[in-house]
Amino acid sequence: MIKTEQLNENSYCVGKIDDRDVPFHRLILKKGTTYNSYLLKTNKPTVIDTVDMMFGKAYIDNLSELINLEDIKYIVINHTEPDHSGALGSLAMRAKDATIVCTEPAVYELKEMYRLQNRNFLVVKDGDKLDIGGKTLLFKITPYLHTKETMITYCIEDKTLFSCDIFSTHVAVKDYFNDTCGFDITEDFISYYNAIMKPHRSYVRIMLDSIKDLDIKMICPSHGFIIRKDVDKFIKIYDDLSQTKNNNKKVVIVYTTIRQNTKKIAEMFKDLISNNNIEVLLFNADKDSSDEIIKAIENSDCTLFGTSTRYGDMVGNMEVLLKLLQNKDLKGILAGAFGSFGWSGEGIELIQEYLNKTNMTVLNTSSIIKSTGMNDVEFPVRIRFSIGDEEADKIRRAAYYIVDLLLS
Ligand code: FEO
């Protein structure tokens, strides 16, 4: 069922209620969900997000009852995942002159997904504003909530936050509004956080800091209930659930290095992880005693092993250390590999092979994707040559992932 609700003057929710058992990121949403799209019918009419591709035709038909689609000036895409951008292709075909508003990383994805190579895009950055003729939109970049390109949109005049996946619920609502739906949505709100947002805890903290000065009277997410009562309470739930607990976690980072690049990766991991009240011990396997390193690993919650690569192999004492670990009981300890390399980085893969022969829980990209749906965290962490901006971002995402696993 496609349903339209008026939010306030000239603002509408045009959503699809999906009351099936919905397959979603290897979950089955037993209570279904909704895909909420919003129309701000200003002098420069603007659509914020669309619906799942399956429901594109009904969505377009319904939106057409509210507005002549050719009049639409902007289509804001907060997040490219197809449950929100799925009807963009159909909408863009009819809203021929509309400019698509999104973050820089979203442009490529949207062009490829919906064959929009010839469309006009407006790329926005954190804090940018857009006058839509009677209302002003403010954009906040919220990477990894839920994927890299994600942002949220705040309407200044209406004090309304269009938060996409954030602050959502997976419920095939009968009544969109949390103050009139007839029951307390808190349990569903928390369940959604735990299922979708919890693996991205560090980014939730960044998002909360980013919106703390906004005066938010209504939250319009892209799944489930629109929150217009107790807004502060629901934001605080995210704040509470994303707090780190001081639970005495210990991380060991051990490396060998040729030209200091792998050492710099190790130091960056140390800085990022220790910022979260986690004790981090850093060892150079060529300088520190193997006995001391092994003892620290046995007492750790997570150990990261890094090496440079020379002639297709690990360097220094790394292999000796890994051999010494083979017969140890390291059950329950997370392990990950990293390193800088110039050509193929075989040393890093060899660390991974040794780790896989222990009984540690070894981080790898494939299992992270399968268990969380996150496609932005890579293990092993392979850095070609030195750390530039892109490489720093890769290390940061890996460090946040570890912190979130340890502190959740
Ligand atoms: Fe609702 Fe990240 O998709």
Automatic annotation (TrEMBL):
Residues 251-406 form the Flavodoxin-like domain. This is FprA family A-type flavoprotein. In the N-terminal section; belongs to the zinc metallo-hydrolase group 3 family. It comes from the Bacteria. Pfam families: Flavodoxin_1, ODP.
